[in-house]
Structure formats: C-alpha cells, structure tokens
Amino acid sequence: MDPAAGAFLGLLFLLSAQPWSPVVAGNTYTCDAPLASTLPRESFSSSSELSSSHGPGFASLNRRDGAGGWSPLVSDKYQWLQIDLGERMEVTAVATQGGYGSSDWVTSYILMFSDGGRNWKQYRREESISGFPGNTNADSVVHYRLQPPFEARFLRFLPLAWNPKGRIGMRIEVYGCAYRHASLSSPDAHVTLTLGSLLDDQHWHSVLIELLNSHVNFTVDRHTQHFQAKGESSYLDLDYEISFGGIPGHGKSVAFPHKNFHGCFENLYYNGVDIIDLSKKHKPQIHLMGNVSFSCSQPQNVPVTFLSSRSYLALPGTPGEDKVSVTFQFRTWNRAGLLLTTQLQHGPGALVLVLNDGKLQLSLSQPGHPARDVTTGAGLSDGQWHSVSLSLKGNHLSVMVDGEAATVAHSLRGRIDSGDTYYWGGCPDSRSGPGCGGPLAGFQGCVRLISIGDKAVDPITVQQGAFGSFRDLQIDTCGLMDRCLPSYCEHGGECSQSWDTFSCDCAHTGYTGATCHSSLYEQSCEAHKHRGNSSGLYYIDSDGSGPLGPALVYCNMTDTTWTSVQHNGSHLARVKSSNGESPHPVFFKYTASMDQLQAIIDRADHCQQELAFHCKKSRLSASHDGTPVSWWVGRTNETHTYWGGSLPDAQKCACGLQGNCLDSQYYCNCDAARNEWTSDTVVLSHKEHLPVTQVAMRDTGQPHSEAAYALGPLLCWGDNSFWNSASFNTETSYLHFPTFRGELSADVSFFFKTTAPSGVFVENLGITDFIRLELHAPAEVTFSFDVGNGRCEVTVRSPTPFNDNRWHHVRAERNVKEASLQVDQLPSKTQPAPADGHARLQLNSQLFVGGTATRQRGFLGCIRSLRLNGLALDLEERATMTPGVEPGCPGHCSSYGHLCRNGGRCRERPRGIACDCAFSAYDGPFCESEISAYFGTGSSVIYNFQEHSNYTFSKNSSSFAALFHEDLTLAGEMATLSFRTTGTPSLLLYVSSFYEEYLSVILAPNGSLQIRYKLDRHQEPDVFNFGFKNLADGQLHQVKIHRDAALVSVEVNQNARRQVILSSGTEFNAVKSLTLGTILDSYYPRFEQSEELIKPQSATSTRVQSVSGGVALSAPSRVIPPSLPEQVSVCTHFPATRTDGVKEQKEHSTHNFLPSVTPASDRSDEARSEVSVTQGVIAVVIFISLCVTAIAIRIYQQRWLYQKNESNIPQTGDNAETALKSEVNMQSTVSESQKEYFF
After folding, report:
1. What integer best gives the mean pLDDT of the chain?
2. Which helix (H) or strand (E) holds 528?
3. Cα–Cα distance, 678 to 672 (Å, whole number)
4. Location of each CATH 2.60.120.1000 domain in the chain
5. Is the pLDDT of residue 993 over 80?
6. What's the rounded mean pLDDT across residues 1196-1207?
7. Location of each CATH 2.60.120.200 domain in the chain
8. CB 326 within 8 A of CB 317
9. Strands 1156-1157 and 1127-1131: what pairing?
10. Distance between CA atoms of 1103 and 1224, rounded to whole angstroms?
11. Closest CA to 1068 of 994, 1142, 1003
C-alpha cells in the first residue's frame, strides 16, 4: 500500500458513478509480530536518562546489555519512553519488564500514540480506563492485548507508578504488523446517520459504511450504529457522480449547508475501488477540484492538557509594555473554572478570566476604581475548540470569542502595563494573587496556540524546563475524553459530562437511576394491585429495565385484576358502500406499541377482546360457498375469519357453535341477511392472535344494506411471572439458568421469604468477575460483585429480621456509575464506581438461583418473581425437574394480609390472596369500598316485596316475582347480618308478612343475641336467646341464620354455631316487607305515636336469601337489573344543618339510582325543632329476589339523614308488630339525653 494519503484543503473529488469490479480484501492474517526488538537504538528516545548505560536504546524486552533497561534521571510522572516504528503500523499488543537484575520497575503506565511525533493521543481501554497494569518485579513479562488495536508510527510509555523501593525502570516490546486496509463489498441502499465526537483532534479516524438492502451499519472509530432505512425501495439509486470532500455546486438544486471538508483522507474506497490511486493516475472518471497534494502534513500546534483543578501553567509576560495582548484556544467539558489570571504592573490591579456557566467572564480591577466585568460567549463548555483574544491598550478593553462580533469596549482609567507572569489554570501553592482562593476551581481541559504580546509560546520548551513552569500537565497532547460516546444513558436519557465524569438526565423517560436503567413503574396491574392501589389509569412497564417503554393502561382492581388497553376506534363504526365501491377497512391504533402489547399479552394468563357486529342485509360470510366477506387482522398481520369462542378458521360465530342463531341455516346471525338489524357479539380469546388491528366488512353492496361494528379494548388478566415461585428445601439444592449477560448494566429483582438466618439468593461467576446476592445475616442483605476493580459490597440492614417468613422485595442494580441495593421500603444504599476503573462485568458460568456452584450456603425458603434486566425467569418450570426444589410457594397472607382493610380477612390462594369482606362494612378486592350509611334516631329503610311483586308480575308472568304473591309459602330462608353497636336493646332486622307473621333479630339489653320467629299468627312467637357473648362491644360481628322448615341454624362470627327447633310453625306466609330501623305507622297502622322501638349505636351489613319450594332466589350484591324498579321507602328527616340546595341535590341523585323511592312522609320542618341527630352507620346489602340489592346501593350512594317526627305516627298498627315493639321497649332503660341509634 502506498503510504501517501489524499490531502484535501478545500478539495472536492468528483467520481463518475460507473460500475467497477470491487477489490476483494485479503484473507484473514495474524498481526502479532514483535516490532520494537528489530529496531535500531536510534528509534528509541526518552525524556531523560540516568546515565549513558540507562539510555532508551537499552529498553528492548529481555535485553541485558548496558544497565539492562531504561531509567530516567528523575523518577516522576513527567518522564516518558518513546519508540519510532519507522512507518504507520497496526499495533495489537504491548509488553513490559523492569530493569534487569534491579529493583527498578513500573507498576502502571499510560500508553500514547502519534503519527508524526507530535500531538499525542492517549490509548484508553474499556471505554474509560487509561492506565495499564505494569510489573511486580524486574524480570517477569506482562503482556497486554489491545482491544481494539490502533494504527500509529510513534508510541510513548508514560510511567504513573513504580516500585517505591527503587526507581523507574522499563524494557518494552510492541506487537503488530504493517497497516492494511479492508475494502467494502457492493452496497445496495441509502441512509443518513450521525456518529462520532472530537474528530477534530488531528488524529486519523476510520469510517466504514455498509449497506445491504435497507440495513445500514455506520461505524466511526469502531463505534457502530445499526439502522434500517425507511421506504419501499431496497436498492441504492445513486446520482451520476459521487463526491468526496464536498458537494459540487453546478447543476444542483439543493444547497448543502456545510463547508467542504478540510483535512486529510487515506484509504478511500468505494465498493473496493481505491479512489486515491485512481486520482493519482489521473483516470478519466476522476474529476479534481481545488489544489491536490498527495501527502498529509503533520500539525504544528502543541496542545497542553490541564489534568486536574490544581494544574497550572505559568508563563512570563512582557513587562514594561503599555498594553496587554493574549490569544489562545481552549476546549473543555466543564462549565466553570479559573482560566487565566495576571497581576498588572504598577499597583494591585489584576486581570481575571473565568469560565462560568459556559460563558467567559473577564474582570479587570484597578486601584481606586470599581472592577469592570465583561461577559461574552455562550455554550463554551461543549468540548469544541474556542478561540479567545484579549486586548487592553490605552483606555480600551476588547474581548473577542471565536472571531465573532462579540467585542466589548470599556473606558479605562490610568495606564495599563503588562504583568510579569500569566497563569493558566489553577494557582501555585505559594501564590495568593487575584483569583486564587476563590470559589472557582482551576480550569480542566486543553489549551493551545498561546500567544503573549504577539509572541507564540512553544510548550515543548516549557516541557524541557527552558521556559515558564507548570504542574500536573500533559504537554503535546489533548486528553479531552468524550464520556458520552458511547452514551451509557439508557432509554433516551440525555448525557452530559464534565472533565472526569458524566451524568444522565432521565426526565420524561419513565426511568430513573444514574444511567436511567430502572423503570419508575410496576410491571403489571397485578403488581400495582398488591401495592394497595385502587382501580385507575397506570403506567406499566412489562419488561422492566428492558428496551420497551412504559404503556398507559387502565387497571380494574376487582377480585380478578384486569388490564385494559384502549384504541382509537372505541366508538361504533358504520359501514356503508358508496358508488358500488367496497368500504375501506378500519385500522386500530392502541395506546401501546405492538411490542408493548405483545409483552402484556405474554405475561397475562388470559386475554380477550369483544367485537360486536350489527348487520342489516350484510353478511359476515357468503351463503353459497362460505367464502368470508368479512374478516379481522391480528397482531402478526394475519387475516382471521373465525369469530368469538370458535376455533381458528371455523368461520362460525358464537351462536353457530352454541346452536342458537336466529336462523338455524347459518352460523352467524348476520349471515341470514335480514332486512332488519341483527347482531353478533363475539369474544376473541386466542392470545397469539390478539390484539385486533383491522376489521373489514365488505358485504354492503346490496340496496339498503348497512353494517356497523364496535371493537372493545384489549382485556387481559393475570400475571404469570408475579407469582412464579420456587421453594428450596435443602441447602444443597439450587436452580441453574444460562449465564447472566449484564456487562455494563445489570439489575436483579425478586421476592423472598425464609426462616433461615442466611443463604445465597443468586450467584454467577466469571474467571475473576462475579455477582452475588445473599441474605448475609438475619437482618442483612448483601449485594457483592467484582468487575476487575476488586470486590465491592453494598449492604442493607433492617431494624427487624428478614427471616420472618414474610415476602420481602429485593432490587439490586450495578452500572458503570454506581451500585445500588434496596430491600422493601428501606432506604436504598449506593456505592459509587471507581473513577476510570474497569466497567464490564464478564461472567461465564451458569446462573445459580437459591444456591452456589460449591453447593454451600444455599438458601432455604421461597423465591418468586425473579427478573434479570427485566427478563423473567420461569422458576416453576425449572423446579419441576430439579430435586430438592418444588414449584410454587404457599402462604401469602402473612405478607399481603394488611391489604385487607376494615376488618376484611385474608384468604390464601395458590397464586395470591383474596380478601373476605364478610366481617366488614366494606366491600371490594381489599374491603375498601364502603357500603354503609348513617342513620339518625327514628330513621328506617323499608323494602316492600308486594309492590315489587305486583310491578314485575304485570311485566313478565314468568318472573320470579310471581313467587311473592300473598299466597306465597316460604319453607326456609337464609339471612346474613354484619353489625357493630354499643347500644342495647337493638333491633337489627325485621321481616313482616300480611298474615301477622314475622322474623326479628334483636340484641337484648345484656348484648346477647335474640331471634324471634312467629310463623303462626294464632300462636305465641318462638323467642331464642343465644348467649354467645356481649355483641354490643363496638366490634364488627357477623350473624348467619338458616331456616329449613322448623330447624333454625345460627352461626356467629363463623365459629359459634347453635341449632333450635321452632314450635310456632314451619312456613313463612305472604312476606310483606323488610325493615331496617323504626317500624312506622304508615306501614303498620296500629303503632302508638309515643313509642320508640330501639335506640342502638351500630353498623350493619345485611344479606338475606329466601328459599321457597326448593328454589333459591339471589342476586349479586351491587347489580340492579334496570328493567325492575325496586320499591324502597326511606323514612328519615334532614338534619337542621342541611340547606335546601343539598336536599334537592340528593333527591336528584336518588332518582338516578332508584326509579321509585317513596319517603314515608315529609317532616323536615318539625325535624329542625327536635334534638340533634345522632349518628350510626349501617352497611346494607340485601338479597330477597332479583332486585333487593337496591337498598345497599341506595344507602351508600346517598348518605342522607332525616330525623323522624314521631308525633305524626298514627296510633294504629299491626298486632304482631305492636307486641314486638312494646316488649322491646319495656327492656330499654336508655336515657333520652344519650346519643341514640336505631335500626
């Protein structure tokens, strides 16, 4: 290969796009030959030498002549050993030794390279590590293979540390081969990408563009971006010419906004064709524009690197001059730093230049005058070179940045003379001049092209000690490093950096952490539910820290947790052809991407989607041959013609499978093509086909034919990974999985519960690297790992032990910035990663779960929901085939039982828990939905069976309401009551009949339970007293009563049970009404005005189920059939504090829920003069027929209180009711001054 390169200084290559045969690159070759040992002594040079026998010419590996190696005159970090390879070579490895037979060796060093012996560049390994490990003695050889290799002619070894008992001593070898190029194979696509950073450092950079159809690989300095070009075409359609170095202006309609390339090209190939070689030979297809030189001159400027905030460069000024003139260029990532200071002659005046918030601020102070400040420039901490020019002469101060019109002039007073010394960067320890000791640290970055008083400064003379002084600098190199290339900020986090670190802005990404690795959201609605969250819109992140982002879904927290994903076509879509053309299909776009939807569906136990068709002379399939004329498309863009619960390709609707279509000749109602609207509602439930993305109905071409359809949201329930668990029964048992791949970012999350004091949860080993999570002690969880920087541990300690047989959640993360560990809601612990340390976690063994490779310190207990970098591991599947490990883990109530609130009881399920709300005045999945209402003195709720029966019977003769006729005979009933009270005596429930029969449930004055049955009006009632305990203790109690003929079973709080035999009868005839509260005269005419039945303080939830003739009548607790308006009477008064507006509002709300609600009477005026309303709470859910639940809904929704005006009660009543009322009142001794509650 010709070593000459094509030089382009405003140069433009034009290449005619003609087909050429590509040059195939050579075969794979080895590149590890020793390069230094064959060089003459003159090829070695150094910063200094201890003696002639310690010169750099003796520094070849294994050489023993001279003093046996190179040693400098002074052992400090400014020494270097340099090699000239004679030409650019590909360098693949280096090796070092100490001085032969001595105590002189280097323990760590920096490797730098250059093409012309100037402007050195530092080689960095593992993206951030710059230092190389050296030797531990004088004679052993330490090899280091360079990944990736580099191309250079000159190499420099800079010792960083050495044997403290000796001095610097080195012998070295360099391995590699002659620099070769690789040509491209023929490409076939078009794309535009951006990649690279700091490419203006005057070093060679490699660019490789590979195109195959629409796939693109774009590589700059071995950093590759993969991209797929958009568009329908899959080939590269080029212009008649290809240009390199610029864009030709003639004949082009598109203006190119950038300047032509200024610099050097080498190894310029297109499809294997050597463009530079063709241009040298003046081939006719090559057109050259501008001056051409086939050589690349070396840069003449020498940059200086300020490594730390203590670095400084002191240069002498030009004393005696009546002006100040300084120019230089700088580049940095830091937003602030002290850049330049000088003390002016003739007084304490000073000039201070600082970088603050990316802007330059110049401050000039003069004795007896206020300081003058100038601010200019913006965004100067972007890592690019910026030029600065300062000029003070006479009474004018001028500042210019980047040659722009940013000059600012100020009138100055007095004579300005140049200072003796100019300081770049920080201050020497002995100096206390201007800018020193302030809040700003010294400048960190690079400076070049320094001129003082119109004289250029050569930093090489400074390095040699002939001019100025310095501290902690690297001269002839710019060590600026782009820590955001490649960016370690994940999930779209924005990377920003300073000189020595980077940070990630995770705002609006949905992720958090030092590298935006961890998701802010739960991974499913099931996880949200077991955080105690109620139904609502939530973001879920199905793959955690994986590449998928969070999706917004609706979580319906019922006993079964449903996930609902909406789309843009939830409204009814009408389909009607126009001009004989087939209507276009409708495409559905969901609030989540297809990848997110697939992750949601894969995690779910079941998914479904409802599709409702409405047809008028429009079919789903043709009648003659069954050819579908309507279909739907699923997630994989496959067309499906099956409907509902049918098997794929069955082409039958649900009615066809069930055999109940309107026309038995067809398998779908719509296929009958009737001249009236018919419908088919189907539920699609094959997970692999969901969601529906497109629906097409094409049979609308007939006259007067129409169709419409509505697609419901995607609904899924279950989370097959949240409860996925395994039980480890022996210390030697474990599960193994493939090696964990988490080189730069790794997170592990899981739940565990145990009674053991210690054990290893997860372990994965490498040659030297490892990662481990363990219960180190009963109250300590430890996350430990090693990525080559030594063992690192993060420990979370709890004030209470973790081995309490409850579920505990662990989440550990390790990235290039830090390691963190969190257990439950305890404060997270973090450990920062060492600066410029090893970054990659390299593992090669299997992943062990619940144990270790040595079968020691195994975990005893349960692990569930184990996820690594967002990927769930199927513990149950692996446990089924592993001895000592069982799938599943029982016992969740100890951890999640606290979610069952308000007295709800936790019930175990194989995969989770359920809350039993029977002992609570609340309902819902966690007993949080209150179904109670407050009753005042004299308040009541009455349900009239006969009115309800008359209404429903007239509407539907086959209704169950016919059972409630006056001749109805009940052979048995079942009632369930939950109540809380502190007042006695109390009436809890009263059921009456038209025949003066009744059932009552009462708390006696001593708090015991009393049940009264009167099933024959000619006999005295059966009165049963159950002395279980005092139930008026303010706690919630549950009573279940079940009568079968004469046998009555009573159960209290699900454990105390009694049975009694009735003597008054076995049949309950003509049930009339159910009463909660006062028995009123309007319903029982013979009641006396002055009597109050009971004044309790209680809360009650009531369920009643009637049985007649072996038929059980029941209804869901909160489902009200809209066609059956219930007759419920609410007999109450408004409190005096209510306003008319409130009254009207609540009455309006009542009408919305119950079509027919009749107050017994309006006594609100009288109520205001009575005693204040006392409060009780009653939660009512009643089952007696299909609609009796209206009472619970009614009371819960309204919560309005009325106070009864007892003076308006007529003094007539039913004999049975009067007797019951009188008897209970005789037992009561409650004072009128007490708060009275009454049911």
Report:
1. 76
2. helix 525-529
3. 9
4. 566-717
5. yes
6. 36
7. 303-475, 720-889, 939-945+968-1077
8. no
9. parallel
10. 24
11. 994
Quote the CA–CA distance of 920 and 930 in Å, as a whole number.
Answer: 9
How buried is residue 150: exposed, middle or buried, by Cβ count under 10 Å (0-12/13-18/19+)?
Answer: buried
The residues with which 735 forms a beta bridge, in sequence order, are 849
Using the 8-state DSSP alphabet, how is residue 608 labeled? E
* Residue of 998, 973, 978 whose CA lies nearest to 988: 978
pLDDT digits (tens, 9 = 90+) for 1118-1171: 222 333 333 444 443 333 333 333 333 333 332 332 233 333 333 333 333 332
- Structure tokens that stand for 297 in this block: 């001159």
- Determine contact, residues 83/155, Cβ cutoff 8 Å: yes
Structure tokens at 300: 């003449």
Tokens for 351? 């000039």
Rounded to whole angstroms, the Cα distance separating 459 from 797 reads 55
469-498 per-residue burial string, b: 16 or more CB within 10 A, e: under 16: ebbbbbbbbbbbbbbbbeebbbbebebebb
Cα 649 to chain centroid distance, Å, stands at: 39
pLDDT of residue 1081: 43
Q: Give CA torsion, residues 173, 177, 179, 180, to 10 deg.
A: -160
356, 306, 260, 331: which is closest to 13 by C-alpha?
A: 260
Distance CA 1198, CA 1176 (A): 15
CATH code: domain 720-889 is 2.60.120.200
Class of domain 303-475: mainly beta
Give the domain 939-945+968-1077 fold. Answer: Jelly Rolls (2.60.120)
Q: What's the full length of the chain, in residues?
A: 1239
Q: Could you tell me where the DSSP H helices lie in 147-196?
A: none
Stated as kind and residue range, the H or E segment containing 364 is strand 359-366
- Give CATH for domain 898-929: 2.10.25.10
Higher per-residue confidence, 445 vs 659:
445
33-178 CATH choice from 3.90.1200.10, 2.40.50.180, 3.40.50.2000, 2.60.120.260 = 2.60.120.260
| CA nearest to 187, candidates 231, 166, 218 | 218
Residue 985 CA to residue 1098 CA, distance in Å, equals 11
According to the model, what pLDDT value does residue 4 have? 41
Say whether 743 sits in a helix, a strand or coil: coil
Beta bridge partners of 980: 1099
Structural contact between residues 884 and 804, judged by C-beta atoms closer than 8 angstroms: no
Distances (CA, A) of 1040 to 556, 976, 1007, 1105: 31, 4, 17, 11
Which residues are bridge partners to 305 per DSSP? 446, 474
275: helix, strand or coil: helix
Residues of the chain with CATH 2.10.25.10: 482-516, 898-929
Instruction: Using the CB atoms, write b or e for 49-70: b if 16+ within 10 Å.
Output: bbeeebbbbbbbbebeebbbbb
Backbone angles phi, psi at 1001, to 5 degrees: -120, 120
Tokens of 237: 């359609």
Neighbours of 902 (CB within 10 A): 19
* Cα–Cα distance, 759 to 508 (Å, whole number): 39
> Which architecture does CATH list for 566-717?
Sandwich (2.60)
Q: Which CATH superfamily is domain 482-516 in?
A: Laminin (2.10.25.10)
Token pair recorded at residue 1025: 């007293």
Given a cut of 80, whether residue 947 has pLDDT beyond it is no
Q: In 213-258, which ranges are E strands?
A: 215-220, 223-228, 241-244
Locate the DSSP E strands across 523-572. Answer: 536-540, 551-557, 561-565
1190-1198 vs 1140-1153: helix axis angle to the nearest 10?
A: 150
Show Cβ contacts of residue 87 under 8 Å, excluding neighbours closer than 6 positions.
3, 153, 178, 179
pTM: predicted TM-score of the whole model, two decimal places: 0.72
Q: Which of 579, 581, 614, 571 is nearest to 698 (CA)?
A: 581
More confident residue, 947 or 1030: 1030
* Amino acid code (one letter) for 859: F
